[in-house]
Design a protein that fits this description.
Chain lengths: 341, 255
């Protein structure tokens, strides 16, 4: 449904995206993942026919976004990043305008607008000025304008940003309900969102695609090893040494101290469960075993791994969530001067 | 061409925001003030001329009230029209709504024409408000309705040109103030360019006075309908709209 081949976009001397290629099959929901400034919005702006690429081609529903722009535009619903809406218009007339401009006939318009307001739960504010709405409502009006004419492809740039947790859940289930009949590409930097909503993921960093595919495949691909978190009260160096000598264990990482016990991260090849051996080791040595659990490999870790490199767990960070927060924070600070231009 | 929905949207934005109301009210207030001042002066003059038959023969409400009134209105337009048009594209760029508008299945040309016609329609409504003044003159004196008609045709053409220039200025920037200043500057230059015609003289002087946006209006105010003037204004509108379309397309590449 969406075919992107060697897409490159340059703003003067700055290359926003470089040689980006991917495909999205019909009916799929694909998450477009990357730190801020990675090129997500640029790619989406090209797909939505807002601006042309410098090189490469993109086809949506079989039509080239540059040569058959009108055909593409008829088939897409687009929600840009900051949800630009006319502040001085009321919700219902605004959606009626969008439906009309998208070519919905006069007869069908009223029912379609009412239906979309119902689905996005904005019927209760339909007579209010858009500029007076809360962020959550505005976001939903933005989504409503994208889906009002029931387009076959949806391009959503950060659709859940700035919403409260309940609204996020609502929007996500709304997007999920669109799968099958619609092809959706949504960008986000909220990692769990992708895992929850999307079937596939495309990770982009610094303008280039660094990983893509179904989520499970990606996790296996990037993490061939299984990890177990262990907390043992005992002489730390000795514990570590013994843990490392268990057959099958490939690495033991000291994960800090918690009270009297030491925390360790034990890695072994996927499919090799070393937990019973660890338990027996602790029992033998009469060390107190406080915790023993498998650590799941998540998309977050894949993201950290491909985006920030393997050595991303800085000292003091226990979990990848903390690392993810740091990475995205660093990214924001690092890129801020650029963003302003 | 989906011009109609764009036109409707622009009209809605003019009227749900205070823009249309404020501009309309200020315009009619100032125009009304000019009218009453000119009409009072004319009333006093005709009172005095009752004693002087020679002077009375030269009293003509079309010449002495309508014509100065129209030329005063053109000055108000010079100051106000840039503010009617400044938001057309600049606001959409600043708020980002242009990104949605230009990804809907409408051609850039339709967006442009829709916006142009909306500003023109708002201007039309403002002009309708001023029709009260000729009606009042006609109530007290004999008015040459032909001159009123050509005068208003002239106003429509002049305003149409102002709006086209303003639309172009608005397509150049995302800052409404900048758009307004550019269109005011361009219009004022086009206005005063004829003043140096006498000084330059010769063929170039003729070119300068032909270029002047207000010289062409004078004929209409006098009740003369000349194709040359009509062609001037329509040509100007076409040129400005064409440039706006180009600038809209160019911005896509730069965005």
């Amino acid at each position: 449904m969406i075919e992107v081949q060697g897409l490159t976009k340059q703003y003067g001397p700055v290359t926003a995206i470089r040689d980006v290629s991917f495909n999205v099959a019909a009916g799929e929901i694909v998450g477009f993942l990357g730190p801020n400034g990675a090129g997500k919005s640029t790619t989406m702006r090209i797909l939505s026919c807002f601006m042309p690429a410098t090189h490469g081609s993109a086809r949506v529903a079989g039509y080239d976004v540059f040569r058959d722009s009108m055909e593409v535009r008829r088939r897409i619903g687009y929600l840009p990043e900051n949800v630009p809406l006319y502040q001085d218009m009321r919700v219902a007339p605004y959606l009626d305008f969008v439906a009309e401009v998208k070519g919905v006939s006069r007869g069908a318009r009223k029912a379609m607008v009412a239906d979309v307001m119902d689905r996005c739960r904005i019927s209760d504010v339909q007579h209010r000025l858009i500029g007076k709405l809360s962020k959550g409502y505005r976001q939903r009006v933005g989504l409503a304008q994208a889906i009002v004419n029931d387009p076959s492809v949806l391009i959503l740039d950060e659709p859940t940003i700035g919403l409260d947790p309940r609204q996020i859940t609502e929007i996500r289930s709304l997007i999920k309900s669109l799968a099958g009949a619609h092809t959706v590409i949504l960008s986000t930097h909220i990692l769990p969102e992708v895992a929850m909503v999307c079937s596939g993921v495309i990770i982009i960093n610094k303008g280039s695609i660094v990983a893509q595919g179904p989520i499970d495949t990606l996790v296996d691909e990037f993490f061939p090893s299984a990890r177990v978190q262990v907390e043992i009260e005992g002489p730390r160096d000795l514990v570590r040494e013994r843990l490392a000598s268990i057959p099958g264990v490939t690495a033991v990482k000291d994960d800090g101290v918690d009270g009297a016990g030491g925390m360790f991260l034990v890695e072994s090849p996927r499919g090799r469960d070393v937990r019973s051996e660890i338990f027996r080791l602790a029992a033998q040595q009469k060390w107190e075993l406080r915790e023993l659990r498998r650590v799941g490999m998540t998309l977050e870790e894949v993201f950290i791994k491909v985006v920030a490199g393997e050595e991303s767990l800085a000292p003091g960070e226990r979990t990848v969530e903390e690392a993810a927060a740091r990475v995205s924070e660093e990214d924001v600070t690092a890129r801020r001067p650029e963003d302003e231009t | 061409m989906r011009v109609w929905p764009i036109f409707k949207k622009e009209m809605r934005l003019y009227f749900t925001s205070p823009i249309a109301w404020v501009i309309g009210a200020i315009f009619l207030l100032i125009a009304g003030y000019f009218f009453s001042a000119i009409f009072n002066f004319f009333a006093q003059a005709s009172m005095q001329s009752a004693m002087n038959p020679q002077m009375a023969r030269e009293m003509n409400p079309t010449e002495s009230v309508l014509r100065p009134l129209l030329s005063n209105v053109t000055v108000i337009l010079l100051l106000l029209m840039p503010m009617v048009t400044m938001r057309l594209f600049a606001e959409e760029r600043r708020s980002g709504t242009i990104e949605l508008l230009l990804t809907y299945p409408v051609r850039d040309g339709a967006v442009l024409v829709g916006k142009y016609l909306a500003a023109l329609a708002l201007y039309g409504l403002m002009l309708v408000g001023t029709l009260l003044y000729p009606l009042m003159i006609a109530y007290f004196a004999r008015l040459d309705w032909g001159a009123v008609l050509t005068g208003y045709i002239g106003l429509v053409l002049l305003g149409a040109t102002f709006i086209a220039v303003g639309l172009f200025a608005s397509s150049l920037t995302e800052n409404q103030i900048v758009a307004s200043i550019i269109s005011f500057g361009v219009l004022l230059m086009l206005w005063v360019v004829g003043w140096s015609a006498d000084y330059v003289g010769g063929a170039w002087g003729k070119v300068l006075s032909d270029l002047s946006i207000i010289e062409h209006f004078d004929n209409f105010a006098k009740g003369v309908l000349d194709t040359k003037d009509v062609v001037y204004y329509l040509g100007f509108v076409t040129l400005a709209l064409f440039l706006s379309l180009r600038s809209l397309e160019a911005r896509r590449w730069k965005e």
